């Protein structure tokens, strides 16, 4: 009986795989010439004997004795793959160097726009995928298999893959622009003693530049990462700031495309800094005089938070490190443009001081990695949504899915208030903020919208924030368009705190009721028609009174 059992087990081993693999990732349309950097990855542990990969025209197998300890990368050309990724694959299809070759029968090369890929064991298909039927194809796009299916996130070559994590921060100082942002940001810079990491879309603020230079001069190691190709290009004012910082020992780096090699992200649009591995400041505003205005002066409406916590700082430091180690990072070449003169807007009386809370629940958000957290937050709304956005625009293939989630919340009975910016560049086209505000106000009884125009207190609405159910707050750099969540590097925080929600709800309510809030019709005409209507009513009443006296 024992001999029969042993024989049965041996036969089972002969007909069953001693290892299991999955096609975990592939990129059929790379950046290198001739798509030499196209690749696929198998995940699994054990012998690769019997395992093959086919595109229908060619089949790849592995040399005798090949073994995987977790992940196997196969590229068309090892040298081309290295030129893009900075590391060599485990195997290559062509013979370009010392990397081992897979065995090829037929001609194996993944087509860019349409093809199929199959993983087989002993000739039997284990896994198969095709594009564009199942997956959307595009240059530089990486397809990732996760949790039993192909991830819908748009991965591009070289992008990071951070997971969602939630922390309990020691303390958080909440603030808004223009009221208290300058003081909080300056304090973080001035109190730094060891390191300062700054990721910013634009930087034209001379006062902040001087303070950062002073930090570098007292021995703080300062690294500044900036978008190298912002909309409209790098201004002379920004060049002057970067020249000044470079001269004062700051390491200034830019992320940008080079030739036919696009940057990993459409824009580096994040706005955060990490000081001394402990203080992480996340903002909706750039380092510009209007975004971080001098205390007591007019500026943008924006939200921010300074988080005092080692774990949160470590999370954002990892994000920063991943970004500065990419293939698209270049040291800034200093020029001759001078540091711009100090500039500030009209004087105002600040309304909102900063608020410090302790033991606060914080979930970082970075796009595109964990951007689904924001959509999940909107979909969780039960009683209320207060949203401030510079603008909301439709996706190329249809409706904005975030706005659709807000409308769904309204349909469920949540009280929804949407406030959008009313500057001319957000209202001059036929389908801009003013038309959207009018549409939202016609949508239903539980949703209302306002347009914020410049006034005595605020320059414009540049915020990208939200309060949900009086308990959750989103502070972020994320615009509500297609690129921002899907293709940009953005940063934000989801805060779970009724006290923080109460603070930002008070700010929102002030903005909602402010004198600078005008209706969409007024925006199109150029002045507030409500004053004319009110005046007309007064004249009519006076006329009726005079007529009756006669």
UniProtKB/TrEMBL annotation:
UniProt GO molecular function: RNA endonuclease activity producing 5'-phosphomonoesters, hydrolytic mechanism
PROSITE patterns (UniProt xref): PLD (PS50035)
A GO BP annotation: lipid catabolic process
InterPro entries: PLD-like_dom, PLD_domain, PLipase_D/transphosphatidylase
SUPFAM superfamilies named among the record's database cross-references: Phospholipase D/nuclease
Keyword Hydrolase: yes
Domain PLD phosphodiesterase: 264-291, 457-484
Protein origin, superkingdom: Archaea
Residue spans crossing the bilayer: 529-547
Keyword Methyltransferase set for record: no
Keywords: Hydrolase, Lipid degradation, Lipid metabolism, Membrane, Transmembrane, Transmembrane helix
Name of the protein this chain belongs to: Phospholipase D/Transphosphatidylase
Species in which this protein is naturally found: Methanocorpusculum labreanum (strain ATCC 43576 / DSM 4855 / Z)
């Amino acid at each position: 009986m024992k001999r029969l059992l042993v024989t049965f087990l041996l036969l089972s081993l002969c007909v069953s795989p001693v290892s299991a693999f999955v096609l975990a990732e592939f990129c059929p349309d790379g950046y290198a010439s001739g798509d030499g950097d196209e690749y696929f990855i198998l995940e699994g542990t054990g012998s690769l004997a019997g395992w093959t990969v086919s595109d229908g025209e060619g089949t790849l197998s592995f040399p005798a004795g090949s073994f995987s300890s977790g992940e196997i990368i196969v590229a068309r050309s090892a040298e081309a793959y290295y030129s893009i990724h900075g590391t060599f694959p485990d195997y290559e299809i062509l013979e370009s160097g010392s990397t081992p070759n897979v065995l090829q029968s037929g001609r194996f090369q993944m087509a860019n726009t349409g093809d199929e890929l199959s993983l087989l064991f002993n000739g039997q298909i284990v896994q198969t995928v095709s594009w564009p039927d199942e997956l959307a194809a595009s240059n530089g796009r990486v397809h990732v298999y996760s949790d039993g299916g192909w991830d819908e996130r748009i991965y591009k070559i070289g992008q990071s893959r951070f997971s969602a994590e939630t922390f309990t921060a020691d303390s958080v100082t909440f603030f808004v622009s223009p009221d208290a942002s300058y003081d909080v940001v300056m304090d973080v810079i001035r109190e730094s003693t060891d390191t300062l990491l700054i990721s910013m879309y634009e930087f034209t603020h001379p006062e902040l530049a001087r303070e950062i230079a002073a930090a570098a001069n007292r021995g703080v190691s300062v690294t500044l990462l900036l978008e190298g190709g912002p909309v409209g290009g790098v201004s002379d004012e920004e060049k002057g700031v970067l020249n000044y910082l470079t001269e004062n020992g700051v390491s200034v780096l830019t992320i940008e495309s080079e030739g036919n090699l696009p940057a990993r992200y459409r824009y580096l649009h994040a706005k955060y800094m990490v000081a001394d591995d402990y203080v992480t400041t996340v903002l909706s505003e750039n380092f510009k005089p209007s975004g971080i205005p001098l205390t007591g002066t007019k500026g943008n409406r924006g939200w921010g938070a300074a988080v005092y916590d080692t774990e949160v700082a470590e999370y954002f430091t990892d994000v920063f490190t991943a970004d500065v180690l990419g293939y698209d990072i270049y040291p800034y070449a200093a020029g001759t443009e001078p540091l711009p003169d100090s500039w500030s807007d009209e004087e105002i009386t600040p309304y909102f001081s900063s608020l410090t809370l302790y033991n606060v629940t914080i979930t970082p958000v970075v796009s595109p990695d964990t951007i689904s957290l924001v959509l999940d937050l909107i979909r969780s709304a039960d009683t209320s949504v207060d949203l401030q956005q510079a603008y909301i625009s439709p996706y190329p293939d249809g409706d904005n899915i975030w706005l659709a989630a807000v409308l769904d919340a309204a349909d469920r009975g949540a009280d929804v208030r949407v406030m959008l910016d009313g500057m001319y560049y957000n209202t001059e086209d036929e389908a801009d903020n003013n038309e959207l505000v009018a549409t939202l106000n016609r949508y239903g009884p539980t949703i209302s919208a306002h347009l914020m125009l410049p006034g005595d207190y605020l320059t414009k609405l540049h915020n990208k924030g939200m309060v949900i159910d009086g308990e959750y707050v989103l502070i972020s750099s994320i615009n509500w368009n297609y690129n921002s969540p899907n293709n940009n590097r953005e940063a934000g925080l989801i805060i779970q705190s009724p006290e923080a929600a109460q603070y930002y709800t008070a700010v929102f309510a002030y903005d909602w009721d402010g004198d600078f809030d005008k209706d969409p019709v007024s925006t199109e005409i150029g002045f507030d028609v409500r004053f004319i209507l009110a005046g007309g009513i007064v004249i009519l009443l006076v006329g009726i009174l005079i007529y009756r006296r006669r």
